[in-house]
């Protein structure tokens, strides 16, 4: 799925045009798109952010359920507490896990939102960024359907770029980090196949250098 407002070039960079007409966040923190190219599936795994805390961090994750398999309902079932332990042997190891993210971007670029942006999704776990612990308090979480052993798709980079720009319009996001960056030694996602340079170049040039704290 190629979202309106995005042109893909031969070099896999993306130029954003008319972004104001593509994605928007409403007053309740829910994403809207004129083409309805997304779903909202509510997760029960969230709570309120601390009073007065601003959203300043965007965390990029990756996930596949069962591990290494794509396009099934495992991720949705996990985030909505409906995972069937009998469906796969791995599921017994995560039984009772209460987690969520604000957004999931599937392999075809489809967006699923699970938690309104104003609420605190449970995606970061034990974490620290710029000497601030509890990253869930001040971050938004985006899961990419993927793994540490598989490249992400063009559609995912395209959608991630547009969603990032939309979120930056609505919230004072100053940093973008991977889950591995906020939980080093505990997490590895989004993994070695996530192309940070491509993601960086696909964002608008304005402020792009200031928003990343990554070493090339």
TrEMBL record:
InterPro entries: Amidase/PGRP_sf (IPR036505), Amidase_domain (IPR002502), NAMLAA_amidase_2 (IPR051206)
Keywords associated with the record: Cell wall biogenesis/degradation, Cytoplasm, Hydrolase, Metal-binding, Zinc
CDD domains: PGRP
Catalysed reactions, semicolon-separated: Hydrolyzes the link between N-acetylmuramoyl residues and L-amino acid residues in certain cell-wall glycopeptides
Chief location category: cytoplasm
Pfam families linked to this entry: Amidase_2 (PF01510)
UniProt-annotated location(s): Cytoplasm
GO terms, biological process: cell wall organization; peptidoglycan catabolic process; peptidoglycan turnover
Required cofactor(s): Zn(2+)
Protein EC: 3.5.1.28
GO annotations of cellular component type: cytoplasm
GO molecular function: metal ion binding; N-acetylmuramoyl-L-alanine amidase activity
UniProt-listed PANTHER family: 1,6-ANHYDRO-N-ACETYLMURAMYL-L-ALANINE AMIDASE AMPD (PTHR30417:SF4), N-ACETYLMURAMOYL-L-ALANINE AMIDASE AMID (PTHR30417)
Protein name according to UniProt: 1,6-anhydro-N-acetylmuramyl-L-alanine amidase AmpD
Lineage, uppermost ranks: Bacteria, Pseudomonadati, Pseudomonadota, Betaproteobacteria, Nitrosomonadales
């Amino acid at each position: 799925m190629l979202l309106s407002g995005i042109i893909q070039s031969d070099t896999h960079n993306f130029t954003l045009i008319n972004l104001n007409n593509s994605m928007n966040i409403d007053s309740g923190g829910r994403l809207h798109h004129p083409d309805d190219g997304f779903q909202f599936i509510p997760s029960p795994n969230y709570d309120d952010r601390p009073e007065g805390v601003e959203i300043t961090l965007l965390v990029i994750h990756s996930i596949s359920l069962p591990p290494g398999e794509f396009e099934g309902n495992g991720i949705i079932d996990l985030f909505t507490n409906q995972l069937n332990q009998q469906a796969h042997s791995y599921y017994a190891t995560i039984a009772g896990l209460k987690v969520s993210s604000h957004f999931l971007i599937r392999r075809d670029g489809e967006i699923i939102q699970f938690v309104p942006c104003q609420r605190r999704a449970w995606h970061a776990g034990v974490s620290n960024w710029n000497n601030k612990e509890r990253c869930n308090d001040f971050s938004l979480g985006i899961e990419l359907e993927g793994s540490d052993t598989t490249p992400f798709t063009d559609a995912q980079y395209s959608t991630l770029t547009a969603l990032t720009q939309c979120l930056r319009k609505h919230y004072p996001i100053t940093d973008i980090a991977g889950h591995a960056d906020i939980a080093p030694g505990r997490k590895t996602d989004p993994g070695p196949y996530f192309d940070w340079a491509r993601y960086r170049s696909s964002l608008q040039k304005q402020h792009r250098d200031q928003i990343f704290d990554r070493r090339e």
